[in-house]
Amino acid sequence: MSEPSSTSRSNSIVAFLQLSPVVSKLTVLGVVAALSLLLLTVFQQTFNSLEERLGALGWTLSPDTSLEERITLVVIDEKSIAEVGPWPWRREDMARLVMAIDQAGAQLQLHDITYPEARPGDDQFLAAVAASNATLISQTPALETTSGATNVGLLTHPFNGVVCDAASGGIQITPGTGYVASAASLAAVPKGHTAQIIDGDGAVRRSPALVCSEGAAYPTLSIAAFLQLGSSEQWSGTIETGSGLFSPPATLNLQGYPGLDIPLDRDGTMRVSFSKSPDSFVAIPAIDVMNGDVDNDLLDNAWVLVGVTALGTGDIVPTPYSGAAYGVEIQARLLASLLDVDIPFTPAGSSFFLLILSAFFAASVFGLATMGDRLAAYGLPIAAIVLPIIALGLHIVVLGSSNLWLGWVSPALFGVLAASSLLLLELARTRLERARVFGNLNSYLPADVARDIAFSLPTSNVNAHRRDVTLLNADLRNFSAFGEARPPEEIAAVLHYFFTRATEIIESEGGRVQEFKGDSLLAIWDGADRVSAVKALQSAKSMQEALNDTLLPDQALAGLEPLALGIGIEQGPVLIGSIGPAHRRSHTLLGDTVGITLRIQEMTAELAQPILVGECAARQLSDENLESQGSYLLSGLRIPHTLFAPGSTVGIATNSDAQPKLTVVSGGKR
Q1: Which of 578, 582, 627, 629 could bridge to 460 as Cys pair (CB 3.0-4.6 Å)?
Q2: What structural domains and CATH numbers belong to the chain?
Q3: Is 525 left (phi over 0), alpha (psi -120 to 50) or beta?
Q4: Around Cβ 460, how many Cβ atoms within 10 Å?
Q5: Under a CB-based contact definition with an 8 Å cutoff, are residues 160 and 190 in contact?
Q6: What CA–CA distance (Å, rounded) separates 179 from 149?
Q7: 63 — alpha (psi -120 to 50), left (phi > 0) or beta?
Q8: Per-residue pLDDT tens for 471-516?
Q9: pTM for the model
C-alpha cells in the first residue's frame, strides 16, 4: 500500500513543479506565510525570548553612560548587614535610615521593600515617614494564581478613574490574584506596587502600570511617586486609546500631571527601558547613609530608591547587561523613563509595519528567484542570511533612535523560510529539468554517452578512447523500394516497430544500440570475448525470429521484392567518443571493425544468409556450429575476410520446418 501512496506524492510534486514559475513561487510564498504564523504560535515563548534578547541590542550596543543624578540607590548590602544585623532589620533601624536620607536632603524616598507584619517600632517608623519630605513603600499583588495563595497585610492607596472589570481605553487592567502588602499599622504610608511580569526565560522586561485586586486598581511604585508629589489630593487618572500607527495602543494620563502621558502596551504594561548603562545609577550602602559617611550632594534633592541587594535575599533578575541584577535596578529604570517622559512602547501599527516588511521580503526573494538560475542559486542563500539581519537591524535602529519597540522575529522568520523554500523550489525545478533533459538525451544516445555529455563541459578537442568491442549491424533490406510504394506514416510505423523490438532484444542480452541510421542499427557489447560474442549471436537469432513473425510480410507488395533482415557480427578494437567543434559535437564509432561489420552485413544478401559472423567473432564461437562461407574481399577493403553463418536455422524461425523468409538480393552494397 505504501508504493502507490509514494507514487502519488511523487506525481503531485512533479505536477506542482510543472506549474508556471510565477504560480509555483506565489504558492510557495503563501505556504511559507501560513507556516510562519503556525511556528510563531506553537513556539511563541521561544520566539518571544529570542526577539527580546537580540532586540535589546538597540540599547546595549550603545548605552547611555551618563551619570543619573536625579535618582540615587541606597542599598542594603552585605556591608550594611554585617554592621546592622541580618535582614529583615528592626523597624527602629529602618526609621533611622528614613531620617538619615531625609536629613541628607532627599526629595522623595521609594522603598522597594514590603513590611507585611506589624512589629515593635512601627510607631517610630511611622513618625520618621511622617516627618520626611515624602516616603512610599512597596506592596506586591500576585499576578498569577498559585495553590493556597493568601492575602497578607492590607492593600492601600488605590488609583481612581479606571474600572477593573472592564477594558479601559481598550486595555484590560492586569488582574491580581492575591497580595503581600504592608501591615495594617502602616496603612497611612503611601504605597505603590512592585509586581513585575517575569518572562519565560526569567527576565523582567515589563511592569503593569496598574494591578487590579479586589475591585480596585493600584499603581506601580514609580507612578505612585508622581502621584504622591502631585498637587491632586486624589490618586486618579484615565486611560485613553491611542490613535495613529506610531502612537501607543493606550495612554495613562495622571490627573495631577497633564504633560505626563504614560504609554501602555496592549496588555496594560509599561516596558522597562535598558537604554541606560547599569553604571549610570549610583548605589550607596545604607550603613554609610545611616552613619553620615556619604557625600550629601548624591542625596540632596534626589529621588532615593531603597532596596535590598545582599546575597541570599532572592531579589535578583537577569537583564540584557547581566544575568544577575537586583530588582531595585528595574524600579530605577522605570522611574528614570518617567522622569524623561521617554518610556519605550510597541506602536499600535507595529503589526502593520512588520507585515509591510514581510511583503518587501517576499517581493525581494520572488525577484531573486525569477532573475535566472545563477542569480537565484547565489542570491537566495544570501537572502536567507541577510533578510533576518535587516529585520533585526531595522528594529535596533528604531529602538535606539526613537525608543520604539517594533519587533523583528516575524519578518525575519518569514524571510528565512521564504528564501530557503524558493531556493529548494528552484533546485527541485532545476533537478526536474535536468532529469528531463537527460532522459531526452538518453533517448538519442547510449546511457553512458548521455551521462558523459550531461556532466561535462563542452570542448573542441577529440574526446575518444580505444576499446575492444563486439559489434552487430542489422539492416532492413529492400526498404527503400518499400518506402517508395507506401505512405510516410506507414514507413515510420514499420521503422519504429523494428527499432523498438530490436532494441528490446539487444538490451535484454546486455548490449546497447549505438546508433540508428536510415533503416539499420548498430549495436555494441563491451569486450571482444566469448561472452559478448555469444550474446551478440543470440540477439541476432532472436531478432530474426521475432521480426520474421511480426514485421516481415509473407508476401511482398506487388512488383517489389519482400523485406528481409540481414545481420552482421564482428569483434575488434574501435575508437569511441565525440569529435567536432564545441558548439556542434558528434558522437561516433571509428575503426576498421566498424567498416568490416557493415560490409559483413551487406554480404548477407550476396550469400543468402540472414546472419553472418566475421572471423574474429567466429573464433569465440567454436561450439556454435558455425559453417564457413568462404573468404571474400569485402567492398572497400584490401584484405580478404572469411565469413561464417550459423549451421542451424533453429531460433531463426518459430517452426523448424519453415524456411527463413529471406530473399537473395544481388549487390547489397551500401
Answers
A1: 582
A2: 24-55+349-441 (no CATH), 64-340 (no CATH), 456-646 (3.30.70.1230)
A3: beta
A4: 11
A5: no
A6: 8
A7: beta
A8: 999 998 888 777 777 788 888 888 898 999 999 999 999 999 988 8
A9: 0.71
